[in-house]
Design brief:
The complex is a heterodimer of chains A (268) and B (312). Chain A is built from 11 helices and no strands. With 268 residues, chain A is mainly alpha-helical. Chain A has one domain: Orthogonal Bundle (MetI-like fold). Chain A starts with 7 loop residues before the first helix and ends in a 12-residue tail after the last helix. Chain B is mainly α and 312 residues long. Chain B has a single domain, classed as Orthogonal Bundle (MetI-like fold), CATH 1.10.3720.10. Helix content of chain B is 72%, strand content 1%. Chain B has a two-stranded antiparallel ribbon. In chain B, helix 4 crosses helix 11. The longest helix of chain B has 34 residues. Chain B is globular. The chains are: A mainly alpha (268), B mainly alpha (312). Chains A and B meet through helix 1, helix 3, helix 4, helix 5 and helix 6 of A and helix 1, helix 2, helix 4, helix 5 and helix 6 of B.
């Protein structure tokens, strides 16, 4: 016997599974208001908003936030240019080495982050490149390319080749066709890819620990606090900021591509 | 009447357009050069640098890297202390992969077969958001949950199941002083963090299982369990394998979670991090990093044979 209704057991386990994915995050929010500074006592003995003020007054948090924003914005910008170029080429023609190029684009996220990290570090070491903001950006842009590529290539596939030919027939040159036809059609896919790349770069920690040197992005700051806690609830406030800075772009990306067959983020 | 339908070139942009039209390969090359230069130089170059360093060795007295070809560093991987790290990592990755597959199935199956309209979107976002949202925040959340004074201990005492919790913690090997310092806790965090990577490909594979096959199976008298075992599971297998590529690879390379949760036992990722950092032994760190690459290459070859890439 098979019916078109889910069995109650399946319904319950599926719902529980979904809750399992989300409830832990809520605890982060709760602990940001606890009055207990030294342990993770549950339930919190009391509630306070003092940690938001404490976080606000910490210059190290502001520095880390500024660095994270700078890195994420520049890395996203670079990844958007490179990702768009390669997706345009890949959608255009079949050519020798196409499969290998796809593999090359995928590799930075297919291999564990620790490998990308140690590779970049050993390359910087061999070439005597000192660590700087740019070494962080270099690593981030490398694994963000694939995110933009995935979004753009799906849109290219859906876009009929006819529109570009029609544009050429009407006398537009390649640059006009790009500006008036291609870009408006690609727009939301590129924006969604950019949003996801930003979210990925903003909270990346594994590759960053290898390429940052003495600088701390916000996730690196958090990692240090996790290993050697000082004011635990302040870390929770920062965690809320990091969470918001990644969730908002993801929701926007989902909203931008919700009507297409290529809803953003299906493949990370 | 036979005027040529060629629009006269008006400027350099038009001349370039004509050039691209006559030579499409040129445009292709122009499009591909910057990204390939980036990925080729930055990424492949770095991987090559890593591979190169793994064939160097470290001078035991001066602690300096000796840039001469040797297999000595790889031989060091076979030392019991290093070998243990590799085995421990692989076992944990396998356990996490199985845990993810079991927990992901009900969610993926419900989302693929029964969720419609609004619920479909809720399930999709419900899996997508944790997939993309902050990794470190998720790990931190579990540090709060697993702590000795944390929510699990509280729930256990509120439901009078503290003896059960104590019995679980008293288990040899996987137990420990508290959940946050045991393999069990580490396993839970790994499963939580990587499970979305299992759900999505699994759901994609399950969506492609034709309803007619399930009906046929029921018509032929199969019970739910039989249908699951002989129809759904084999058809969903490529999706499960595709998901397992992610969960396995991500667990194997992770070094943050074993550092924050667990009994400070060493894992490959941690070994790489510590060797290149405090120990300054880049060759051995590089050799350690090559291990997951080799394991993943073998895994990918096997997965390809099982048809997992069609499910991606």
């Amino acid at each position: 016997m098979r019916s078109d209704r889910a069995s109650p057991l399946l319904k319950i386990t599926a719902t529980l599974g979904l809750l399992f994915l989300h409830v832990p995050i809520l605890l982060i929010f709760l602990y940001a208001f606890t009055t207990e500074e030294r342990t993770y006592q549950f339930p919190p003995p009391g509630l306070t908003t003092q940690w938001f003020a404490a976080a606000w007054a910490r210059p190290d948090i502001w520095e880390a936030l500024a660095l994270s924003l700078k890195v994420a914005l520049i890395a996203t910008f670079l990844a958007m240019i490179l990702g768009t170029l390669v997706s345009a080429a890949m959608s255009r023609a079949k050519f020798f080495g196409r499969e290998q190029i796809t593999l090359l684009i995928l590799l930075p996220i297919a291999l564990p982050g620790v490998i990308t990290g140690i590779s970049l570090r050993s390359a910087f070491g061999l070439m005597d490149i000192p660590f700087s903001t740019w070494t962080i950006i270099l690593g981030h842009a490398t694994f963000c390319i694939v995110i933009v590529y995935n979004n753009a290539v799906a849109r290219f596939r859906r876009l009929s080749g006819g529109v570009m030919e029609a544009s050429a027939d009407l006398g537009a040159n390649a640059f006009q066709s790009f500006w008036y036809i291609l870009l408006p059609n690609l727009g939301t896919a590129l924006l969604a890819g950019g949003m996801l790349a930003f979210a990925l770069s903003f909270d990346e920690v594994i590759v960053t620990t290898f390429t940052a040197g003495q600088q701390a992005t916000l996730p690196i700051w958090m990692l240090e606090e996790l290993i050697r806690p000082r004011q635990r609830p302040v870390t929770n406030v920062v965690a809320m900021v990091v969470f918001a800075a990644t969730v908002v772009p993801i929701l926007l990306a989902f909203y931008l591509t919700r009507n297409g067959s290529e809803t953003a983020g299906a493949g990370k | 009447m036979t005027a040529p339908a060629i629009i006269p070139a008006r400027g350099p942009a038009d001349r370039l357009t004509a050039l691209f039209w006559r030579r499409p390969r040129l445009l292709l090359a122009l499009l591909l050069t910057p990204p390939l230069l980036w990925l080729g130089l930055v990424y492949l170059g770095s991987l090559a640098a890593l591979l190169l360093q793994s064939f160097y060795s470290i001078d035991e007295f001066s602690g300096r890297v000796v840039p001469e070809f040797t297999l000595k560093t790889y031989a060091e991987l076979l030392r019991p202390s290093n070998y243990d790290v590799i085995i421990r990592t692989v076992l944990m990755s396998a356990a996490v992969t199985i845990g993810c597959a079991i927990l992901a199935f009900p969610i993926a199956y419900f989302a693929a077969r029964y969720a419609r309209g609004r619920w479909k979107a809720i399930f999709y976002l419900g899996v997508m958001l944790p997939l993309w949202s902050s990794y470190l925040v998720k790990v931190y959340a579990w540090k709060l949950i697993l702590a000795k004074e944390g929510i699990i201990t509280w729930v256990a005492s509120a439901t009078h199941t503290t003896p059960v919790l104590d019995a679980i913690l008293a288990l040899p090997i996987i137990g420990g002083n508290s959940l946050s310092t045991s393999y069990l806790g580490m396993f839970a965090v790994f499963v939580y963090v990587w499970i979305p990577y299992m759900i999505l490909p699994m759901q994609a594979a399950l969506e492609r299982v034709p309803t007619s096959m399930l009906e046929a199976s029921a018509d032929l008298g199969a019970t739910r369990a039989q249908t699951f075992r002989t129809v759904i599971l084999p058809l969903a297998l490529p999706g499960i394998i595709a998901g397992s590529i992610f969960t396995f690879s991500l667990t194997m390379g992770d070094y943050i979670i074993p550092q924050i949760v667990g009994n400070s036992a060493n894992f490959i990722g941690m070994a790489v991090y510590q060797l290149q950092g405090t120990a300054g032994n880049i060759p051995l760190a590089a050799a350690f990093a090559v291990v997951p690459i080799v394991i993943m290459l073998i895994y990918l070859t096997l997965a390809k044979r099982a048809g997992a890439f069609d499910a991606l």
